[in-house]
Amino acid sequence: MAHKTTGPGSSTVKDYRVLIKGGLIYDGTLNSPYKADIRINGERIEAIGNLNGKADVVIDAAGKIVTPGFIDCHNHSDFAWKTWHRLTPSTDFLTAWKGNYNNIYQGVTTIITGHCGMGYTKMSEWFSTIESIGGFGTNIYHLIPYDALKSEIIGTDLRPATSAEYELIKKRVTEEIRQGALGFSTGLDMPPAVYDTLNELIDIAKVINKYGGIYDTHIRSESAEQTADGKIRIVEAVKEAIDIGRMSGISVQISHIKVDRVLMNPQVIIDLIEDARKHGINVTADQYPYDAGTQRIQFLLDTKYRTGEKVRDEFRSSDGRAVLKKGVEAVLSQVRPESIKIVSCDTKIEYQGKSLTQIAEAEARSPEDIFVELACQEIPPFCVFFTQDMNIVRQFMKCDWVFTGSDAVNLPRDVVKLVGKFHPRFYGTFSKKIRQFALDERVIDLLFAIRSMTSLPADKFGLKNRGRISEGYYADIAVIDQNKLTDKSTYENTTEYSEGVTDLIVNGTIEIRNSKTTGKWGGRPCKKERGSEVANS
Predict the structure, then answer these.
(1) Minimal CA–CA distance to 329: which of 303, 302, 307?
(2) DSSP one-letter code for 105
(3) DSSP code, position 433
(4) Is 253 helix (H, G, I), strand (E, B) or coil?
(5) Are 119 and 76 in contact (CB under 8 A)?
(6) 0.90 cut: is pTM over it?
(7) Residue 376 has what DSSP assignment?
(8) What DSSP designation does 32 have?
(9) Which residue, among 175, 151, 72, has the nearest Cα to 409 in the 3D structure?
(10) Which of 468, 503, 451 is CA-nearest to residue 19?
(11) 3-state helix, strand, coil in the chain (%, to 5)
(12) What is the spatial distance between Cα 45 and Cα 67, in angstroms, rounded to a whole number?
């Protein structure tokens, strides 16, 4: 969709609220960038062109680029709000949490939550929580976390649902999609989701597809490890996602696409997806531009050793730990202990920032023993796992069906002091992709990078009137000094805000002005209803 303007060289005189003058506009598509002014009235873009007139605020964008606000299509902030915001006093909560600073400093204006089958199962509960604080740093859309919803109905027992339970599951899923959820998500390599069957997921996908929703999946495996019959796990997992799209007609989104632990040439996976797309199956993916992931340490173990939250009780006794150690040895045959770094550990603060190898050497113990001890804690520590190859990351990034998603959360610095550090992607995903891979390395060009975080996810998820700079669209806009744009967050210092976004507007509200936050928040919960995006107010 091309932008609308008042015409080359045209001039209009009108009073309005915000005027962005003289920037180089990247409209979110592959259209060539062009210089123009942007007039904003209320929450919408009113005009684009050579504009004159009085304005309450004039933003001088000369020498800068102007883009649609970025869309983080894979965000777990709902998880953070459910588990962590209780840690901060109420006054700190309002200032630290509502700004969503680690996202807005990157230029993010919209996040999509409810991924990997986890999070709020009732969108109304999540949205009312956000509404209660009066404004938020970003817009929020939500997916139905299928596995969390299913667990509420059948419990955490690892068994199929009864026919009565399954009818109730479908009823709840239907209620949520009709109330404006974007689709449903699964986390198929985590209990209890490992017991979701292909036929079950196809059946649920058919329900969701009736309402124009999508299927967003953390696939069953991201490793190139071979099964006993010689099949490659990640290849089979991608095939399953494609089969669900083929059999149900639903649009499929593969979460945080990667090749993990055991590596392989990703071209096999790329060819699978591109062949499916040629045959009319709408398969896309998202990606964060880093060589490490993050999760609690026990998630490296085979699912037979763990529940959704911790190691199974039978493996936490003395005899059970001896069996568990065999599973740990299998993990460490693929993942080097020096590549597992503890970032958040409630019981062993001194471990934070150290690898398994460093801890083992300091205590004259084996990495396997350290792993077993940490995994068996009631609340296992979060770790960063350096298990990816950056050349594979770059190869996926070049695909025009790969979007940008942080797989991160709204993480205020005050909370980091309480729960520990996590991953630099929480503060730097979007800035890093543009700075390193578009501007510096030129793995992709700038148009391509910006489209991957604006119009592509907006179209995929059905976010009406977002993801482009075009007349009538919501005024979600980032003004960026590309010479200064940089991600500053590292694995050692994970909470450094990105720099280079000089001005940020969300639904017409200026949240960042001259590189500083204004304390005004234009973001809000949003829902999809009958093909239209409507504020949940």
Answers:
(1) 302
(2) T
(3) I
(4) strand
(5) yes
(6) yes
(7) T
(8) P
(9) 72
(10) 503
(11) 35, 25, 40
(12) 13
Q: What is the DSSP letter of 472?
A: T
DSSP 57: E
Alpha helices in 99-252 (DSSP H): 101-104, 123-131, 146-154, 163-178, 198-209, 233-248
Name, in order, each residue with C-beta under 8 angstroms of 373's C-beta and a sequence gap of 6 or more: none
Q: How far apart are CA 380 and CA 399, in angstroms?
A: 36
Looking at residue 382, what DSSP letter applies?
E
Q: CA–CA separation, 29 vs 237, rounded Å? A: 31
Residue in 93, 79, 2, 5 with CA at minimum distance from that of residue 47: 5
Q: Can you list the domains of the chain with their CATH numbers? A: 70-291+388-465 (3.20.20.140), 300-385 (no CATH)
Measured from the Cβ of residue 334, the count of other Cβ atoms closer than 10 Å reads: 15
Q: Measure the CA–CA gap between 461 and 510, rounded to whole angstroms.
A: 25
CA distance 478 to 430: 12
- Distance of alpha carbon 148 from alpha carbon 316, whole angstroms: 25
Q: What gap in Å lies between CA 2 and CA 107, rounded to an integer?
A: 22
Tokens for 203?
């059946």
Can you tell me the distance from the alpha carbon of 189 to that of 117, in angstroms, rounded to the nearest whole number? 10
Distances (CA, A) of 213 to 141, 179, 251, 455: 12, 12, 8, 17
The helices-and-strands tally (H runs, E runs) of the chain is: 17, 25
Tokens of residue 123, six digits: 């969108």
DSSP string, 440-453: IS-SS-HHHHHHHT
Residue bearing tokens 């763990």: 306
β-strand partners of 516:
513
What's the angle, vertex CA 377, arms to CA 371 and CA 379, rounded to 5? 115
Per-residue pLDDT of the chain (537 residues; tens, 9 = 90+): 444 444 333 334 445 689 999 999 999 999 999 999 999 999 999 999 999 888 999 999 999 999 999 999 999 999 888 877 666 656 566 667 899 999 999 999 999 999 999 999 999 999 998 998 888 999 999 999 999 999 999 987 777 889 999 999 999 999 999 999 999 999 998 877 888 999 999 999 999 999 999 999 999 999 999 998 999 999 999 999 999 999 999 999 999 999 998 889 999 999 999 999 999 999 999 999 999 999 899 989 988 898 777 899 899 999 999 999 999 999 999 999 999 999 888 888 899 889 999 999 999 999 999 999 999 998 899 999 999 999 999 999 999 999 999 999 998 887 776 677 789 999 999 999 999 999 999 999 999 999 999 999 999 999 999 999 999 999 999 999 999 999 999 998 899 999 999 999 999 999 999 999 999 999 999 999 644 444 443
H, E, C per residue of 494-536: CCCCCECEEEEEECCEEEEECCEECCCCCECEEEEECCEEEEC
Q: How far is CA 19 from CA 45, 466, 481, 514, in A?
A: 10, 19, 17, 14
Burial of 83 (0-12, 13-18, 19+ CB in 10 A): exposed
